[in-house]
Amino acid sequence: MADLLEHVRRSGFSFPERVIHLFVGGSELHGAKVHGTDDLDIYGVYVEPPELILGLDSLPHFVWSTAGDDRRNGPNDVDVTLYSLKKWAGLACKGNPTALHFLFADGVMRNRVWRHIVTNKDVFLARSCAKQFLGFADDQLKRMTGKKGRGKKGQRPEIEEKYGYDVKAAMHTLRLLYECKEIVSQGTITLPRPERDFLIRVRAGKYSLEQVAAMSKKLFEECEELAEHSALPERIDRAAVSAIVADAYQEMWDANSAS
User: Fold this and answer.
1) Which residues lie closer than 8 Å to 111 by C-beta, 6 or more apart?
2) pTM, two decimal places
3) Is 69 in contact with 79 (CB distance < 8 Å)?
4) Does residue 37 sit in helix, strand or coil?
5) Given this model, what pLDDT does residue 68 score?
6) How far apart are CA 73 and CA 79, in angstroms?
7) What is the pLDDT of residue 259?
8) Which of 141, 210, 202, 195 is nearest to 173 (CA)?
9) With 61 labelled, which of 8, 55, 79, 232 sits at a CA distance of 20 to 30 A?
10) Ordered DSSP codes for 179-211
11) pLDDT at residue 38, as a whole number
């Protein structure tokens, strides 16, 4: 925990003491990290002070990288991505895959406010999240096949030259589809992924572009079928989520005013 918090402090984030959840994300979270190639991705949630909720200014999220904005991340770089609790909850309610990972990641924080949220994680899950997972997977698939362009930091020419296509995008395509299957059928996301050995083989270029495309097509169909018959509620109960979020803010504010 000390190491991750030190990175948060190094980033210049103004409220490290208000972070309620902190964990290592990215390929390491999924279990598909390749030694010597991936940066360190740190994610977290914080409860901002009352003036940033009730006053004129706000701080919905905080992003920082040792790579800056001018170059791609290397294996020694660190990315810090923090969301306010309200911002994170809004993303989770939309079914954003990265936001939903927060509920199932083993973090380094032991804050009771976040424990209460995880205890009630079911209110953040609905069949509607499948649309987001499938959309993100389709985006990665199009990047893999060249049907969609990439921004400067999304380009991986050395990977494409070595394997003939973007194998990292291929890995993420399949990973998102496996997560989608699990969440709509079982209401959970296992981290690291049970398929991590397979995902590492995909990332190592052990499958052709055609094979990955065929596997993806089959998984898309399975996800759509499972989502249609999922036991999850059709949509999120936003009132229930709002009550949990409001209670969390009040508890954190009361604890800070008492100290």
Assistant:
1) 19, 20, 21
2) 0.93
3) no
4) coil
5) 83
6) 9
7) 65
8) 141
9) 232
10) HHHHHHHHS---SS-TTHHHHHHHHTT-S-HHH
11) 77
CB under 8 Å to 62, separation ≥6 — which residues? 11, 13, 46, 80, 81, 82, 83
What are the structure tokens assigned to 221, written together?
């169909």
* Positions of the chain with pLDDT under 70: 1-2, 36-37, 149-155, 259
Neighbours of 119 (CB within 10 A): 9
Position 70, amino acid: D
> What CA–CA distance (Å, rounded) separates 134 from 128?
11
Q: How many residues does the chain have?
A: 259
* E-assigned strand segments in the chain: 19-24, 40-46, 61-65, 78-84
Of the candidates 162, 15, 177, 127, the one whose C-alpha atom is nearest the C-alpha of residue 82 is 15
Residue type, 102: F
End-to-end CA distance of the chain: 22
Cβ-contact 5, 44 below 8 angstroms? no
Structure tokens at 5: 């918090």
53 touches 248 (CB < 8 A)? no
